[in-house]
């Protein structure tokens, strides 16, 4: 069972208007530990009516919150950041228990999640407007940037902490209030964040968490309510498209961080050891369950065999197990459905002619574990090359020329992250500019941090999170035209 230093962080009710509340019907849903199937908690299972109340609470709280100074909001966010870091270990324990990632990664995610709170505490003070040269002498033109209003955020289970702070911190910094629906597999991390926000003194109604096992009902309320002015979603492209269409009725601003199909290109002139290290970090982190995980390894013919050999040797070092065990690098997949999907993609690739180098099956320890897997001789035409694998499975596809690699990399409706390894400076520029992706890692497998803009193009999404651009989505530009001067 979960043992925490501060048991007050384990919350099982939703957080609305500063209160911990159950469902009107008393209904609850179970949260499981994916490493052993144990039930961790029974969490309040809210519906449309309670969601509406959360939105109304956020709307009411916004009246005063938007009047606070940026410095006041920055101070509260900073306190929230400090509390998150003080409770890093407990938050990591909660995360590993409900999500499965190794503890070291969970601690890393808590620090990463907190970094957005720190960053936007600072950015709160830099929401500048403009003065614009006037077309005539009797007028002055000015812009101010104001909070957009109530923000709804729907977040996934793979980063149960950071996907919330990356949306809520800029929203609150800008003077917006927020209603969050966390992934149903991982509500405990979200509720622990709410408890710390409460302790930090963030006023009632400014940050609300609606837990539910009925995402379509809560999602419909959040995306159709006229009080919600912006919907920020991270999750699958299928649900993102649905929410975008539901938001059309009230013309909400939408920010979407959707699926990816990240290419990882290794050119003949790459530093192969660095490429293998980057490949391991990009592919096997979180057991392959991130939207920026390399999904296809495109490897130039001259280094194909050698890269495959070194990559396989590195994969052999991975240790599968419960994330709380010492030295574990690869936790379980989130649930049985995820494991079945990965199994069927691998089986499909083998049926279509791929070669199995290692892994290729659920892990012997049972449960939702899947063996770290390497397939070679994969082609762009195989189903596994067009689907987001979301598991610890790497596929190697050979290519001949730079042009061919860029064309293969771009041959997908997605455009979130891409990676490539090369040393030739001309090639570095040509490929960087040629890739139709929002994020490009060049000789680097880890690209996310709070200072850089995260987001995709094409069907991978709309908007950028983090960085100095991350607050833009939460403010409206108002133009003031002053005449009679
Ligand atoms: P994933 O494959 O990462 O689980 P989903 O898009 O299914 O991606 O889930 C991401 C988030 O979207 C979760 O919080 C989930 O509950 C929510 N979600 C799923 N279906 C819907 C829906 N129809 N409307 C609103 N939210 C949804």
Automatic annotation (TrEMBL):
Residues 20-479 form the Aldehyde dehydrogenase domain. Gene3D superfamilies: Aldehyde Dehydrogenase, Chain A, domain 1, Aldehyde Dehydrogenase, Chain A, domain 2. Pfam families: Aldedh. GO terms for cellular component: cytosol. One of its GO terms (molecular function) is succinate-semialdehyde dehydrogenase (NAD+) activity. The active site is at 257. One of its GO terms (biological process) is gamma-aminobutyric acid catabolic process. It comes from the Bacteria. Keywords: Oxidoreductase. Belongs to the aldehyde dehydrogenase family. This is NAD-dependent succinate-semialdehyde dehydrogenase.
């Amino acid at each position: 069972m979960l043992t925490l230093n501060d048991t007050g962080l384990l919350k099982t009710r939703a957080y609305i208007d500063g209160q911990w509340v159950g469902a009107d019907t008393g209904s609850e849903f179970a949260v499981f530990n994916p490493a052993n199937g144990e039930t961790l908690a029974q969490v309040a299972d809210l519906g449309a009516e309670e969601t509406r109340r959360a939105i109304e609470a956020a709307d009411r709280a916004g009246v005063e919150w938007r009047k606070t100074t940026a410095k006041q909001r920055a101070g509260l966010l900073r306190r929230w950041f400090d509390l998150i870091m003080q409770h890093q270990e407990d938050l990591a324990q909660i995360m590993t228990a409900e999500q499965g990632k190794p503890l070291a990664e969970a601690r890393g995610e808590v620090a990463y999640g907190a970094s957005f709170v720190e960053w936007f505490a600072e950015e709160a003070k830099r929401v500048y407007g403009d003065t614009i040269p006037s077309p005539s002498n009797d007028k002055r033109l000015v812009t101010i940037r104001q909070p957009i209003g109530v923000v709804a955020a729907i977040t996934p289970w793979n980063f149960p902490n950071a996907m919330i702070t990356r949306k809520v911190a800029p929203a609150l910094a800008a003077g917006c209030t927020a209603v969050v629906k966390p992934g149903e597999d991982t509500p405990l991390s979200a509720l622990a964040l709410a408890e710390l926000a409460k302790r930090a003194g963030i006023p009632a109604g400014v940050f609300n968490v609606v837990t539910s096992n009925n995402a379509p009902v809560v999602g419909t309320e959040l995306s159709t309510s006229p009080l919600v002015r912006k919907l920020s979603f991270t999750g699958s492209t299928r649900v993102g498209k649905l929410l975008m269409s539901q938001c059309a009725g009230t013309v909400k601003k939408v920010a979407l961080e959707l699926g990816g199909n990240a290419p990882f290109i290794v050119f003949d002139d790459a530093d192969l050891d660095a490429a293998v290290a980057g490949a391991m970090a990009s592919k096997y982190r979180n057991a392959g369950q991130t939207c920026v995980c390399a999904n296809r390894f495109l490897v130039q013919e001259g280094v194909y065999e050698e890269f495959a050999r070194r990559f396989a040797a590195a994969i052999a070092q991975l240790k599968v197990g419960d994330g709380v065990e010492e030295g574990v690098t690869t936790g379980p997949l989130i649930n049985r459905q995820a494991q079945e999907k990965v199994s069927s993609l691998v089986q499909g690739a083998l049926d279509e002619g791929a070669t199995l180098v290692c892994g290729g099956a659920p892990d012997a320890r049972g449960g939702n574990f899947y063996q770290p897997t390497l397939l070679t001789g994969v082609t762009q035409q195989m189903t596994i090359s067009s689907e987001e694998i979301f598991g610890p499975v790497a596929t190697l596809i050979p290519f001949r020329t730079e042009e061919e690699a860029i064309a293969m990399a771009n041959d997908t409706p997605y455009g979130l992250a891409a990676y490539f390894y090369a040393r030739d400076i001309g090639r570095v520029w040509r490929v960087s500019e040629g890739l139709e992706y929002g994020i490009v890692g060049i000789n680097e497998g880890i690209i996310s941090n709070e200072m850089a803009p995260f987001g995709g193009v094409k069907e991978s999404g709309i908007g950028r999170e983090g960085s100095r651009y991350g607050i833009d989505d939460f403010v409206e530009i108002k133009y003031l035209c002053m005449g009679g001067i």
